[in-house]
Structure formats: structure tokens, C-alpha cells
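$ run holo --ligand "zinc ion" --emit C-alpha cells
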Amino acid sequence: MFDLQKAIDTAHNITFMTGAGVSTHSGIPDYRSKGGLYANSADPEYLLSAENLRDHPESFYDFVKNRMYYPDAKPNVIHEKMAEISNEKGTIVTQNVDNLDIKAGPKHVVQFHGTLYKVHCQKCGKQVPWQDYLKDMHHQTDDGILRPDIVLYGEGINQQTLINAVQAVQSADLIVVVGTSFRVYPFAGLIQYARPDAVLVAVNKENIAAGDDIHMIQADALSVFEKLHA
Ligand SMILES: [Zn+2]
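-- output --
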């Protein structure tokens, strides 16, 4: 099997690209897997769309509030090891909106799809504590509809976020893809910015479609990461 520890030891600049499979170990359901967040919803991509937020804000709020917020969730050993290793030499680019990557204390994180724990009012633009949002979808001062700063279906990635993510990928000589099936674009497309000499590794329970150049460690990420060190 590919020696991930050796690759980490010899790398100068490591970029982790992570997804829902990292946070399932903290009790947060996977977006797309069987039994996951979307399994019992008629049309989850619609529920989490800009269109639904605009046309049916109550339905959007109900879904987000009751199915996506896990404020008591704690980072697990994968988050912790990624923080430790990236603080030595690297960056984390995460698709997760649960803030667990940040809670683990890394210096460099790109939250590619934003975060549930920043909320703003669509009417006045002001930021509102997420705790207020969980009590009421309306801004108290002007009755505007609140929303979390996450990227919805039908919305583009924030330009600066995209630049930061591309730079993180371009500057890495080791890219470790963790806990993502790599089917969501444009996130999966970031890999095309990898340097030709970069070593690419994926740690995922299922084989992922990321080309022949990637070393696949088909295993549970938790069991792999608990053995790693910076
Ligand atoms: Zn407002």
C-alpha cells in the first residue's frame, strides 16, 4: 500500500482536499451516501438551492436548521491530524460547511462552500450570530430573511475563495484527498491545477474517479489518520 506517512515526511507543501467523509466520524451525516443527509428528502438539491431560498424561504430554513446544523459536533482525529500536519507545512481546502476543520485549529483553511456558522441578512447585509438564526429566520431589526454563508445550488463559488483554493492546489507537492467521492464540481476540478510533479493521494472508503495519476488508499480515513503524524 502507498506509504502516506513517508509522503508527508518528504513533502514541502501539503494540501488536503476534504469532504463529508471526514465529518461523519463527528456525527454529521454525509451529504450523498446511503442513509445520509439527502437519503430521505424528495429533492435535496432543490431544497438547498438559491431558488428554494428565494421562493420558499420557510422550506429552506426548515431543511437547513433541522438537518444541517450540529453546533455541538467536535473535530475528530482526522481534523486534528490535518490541522497538525498543515500547520507544519500546508493548507486544508474543505467542502464541509460544518466548521469542524477550523475548530481543530489549523492556520490555513479554505472553506470552499462557505460555512453555516456565518449568517447574514439578505435585506441589510449585516452579519447575525448563527444562534439567532437558529431561533428565527428573520432579522430582528428589519425583518429581512437571514441566510448562512454557504454556497447553494445555483450559486457560484466566491471569487477570492476560488483563487485561494487554486493557489493552495498549485503550490502543493503533495495533495491528499480525504473523505470525498470527488463528484462535486467545481471542487473536483481543482485537481487540474496540481503541479505535474505533485504526488496525489486519495483516502476514501470507495474508489474515487480522479484519474490514474492518483494513489488510492481505499480505507476508512479515521484508521489511516490516527496513525499519521506531522
Ligand atoms: Zn437586516
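-- notes --
The chain has ten helices and nine strands.
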